[in-house]
Amino acid sequence: MQRRSAHLVGAALAGKRRQHHRNDRGRRQSQRCRRRQRCGRRAKLHAAAQCIREHGVPNYQDPVLTADGYVYTDEVAFRPIEGPQMEAIQTTCHDLIQAAGFAIRDQGPPPPKLIQAGVKSAQCMRAHGLPNFKDPTADSRFAPGKGFGMDPTSIPPGGKQNPTLRRAAEACQAVLDEEAAASSLGNLGNA
User: Fold this and answer.
1) Pick from 61, 75, 152: which is nearest to 107 by CA?
2) Which of 15, 34, 97, 155 is most buried when burial is the number of CB atoms within 10 A of its CB?
């Protein structure tokens, strides 16, 4: 009887191990599938970026796809592009951009680390003479590699030539650089 009990216990444990192994294998297959989907989308993002580079924006970086599905793009590369050239890019690369599921000038929301860096910058700017400098939020727009920039209502009279603004920017250069680094495509991809 003891032998039979030991055999039944052993069989039950083996069955649990097989079930655990099947569950684990199913989880791994599911993860591979999700990874393949991301890899497939990354390939589409690369193809769209290659089209953009070939049609007038040679230094355009591949958009970044985050684990949660947000896409961040190198919109700064488009700043010098004029209307007709931009229209030509959008027309020529339209199908690839659509297939990749992104818009050239759209960004995902700023990740928490970027918002924290932006708040630190805003605090520094306020501490150095710009009391109206606003903290960024999850709804704030930013430019990858540049950060949040200045809200138009935060700009003092005289704009960027204002001596107070220039002094504050100089005093806060290190934290402004940290904000810009936090907004880089490489860091956004790791957010």
Assistant:
1) 75
2) 97
- Helix, strand and coil in the chain, % to nearest 5: 65, 5, 35
| DSSP line for 117-148 | HHHHHHHHHHHTT-TTPPPP-TT---BTTTBS
CA distance 24 to 133: 51
| Rounded Cα–Cα distance for residues 148 and 108 (Å) | 13
Residue reference for tokens 């970044």: 64
Its sign, for the CA torsion 134, 185, 86, 82, is: positive
Asked if residue 132 lies in contact with residue 153, where contact means CB atoms within 8 angstroms, the answer is yes
pTM of the model: 0.71
| Tens digit of pLDDT at every position of the chain (191 positions) | 444 444 433 444 444 444 444 344 333 433 443 445 557 999 999 999 999 999 999 999 999 998 888 899 988 898 888 888 999 999 999 999 999 998 887 788 999 999 999 999 999 999 999 999 999 999 999 999 999 998 888 888 998 899 999 999 999 999 999 999 999 998 988 76
How far is residue 133 from each of residues 113, 122, 136, 155, 181, measured CA to CA in Å? 19, 6, 9, 8, 20
The ranges assigned to domains in the chain are 37-108, 112-189
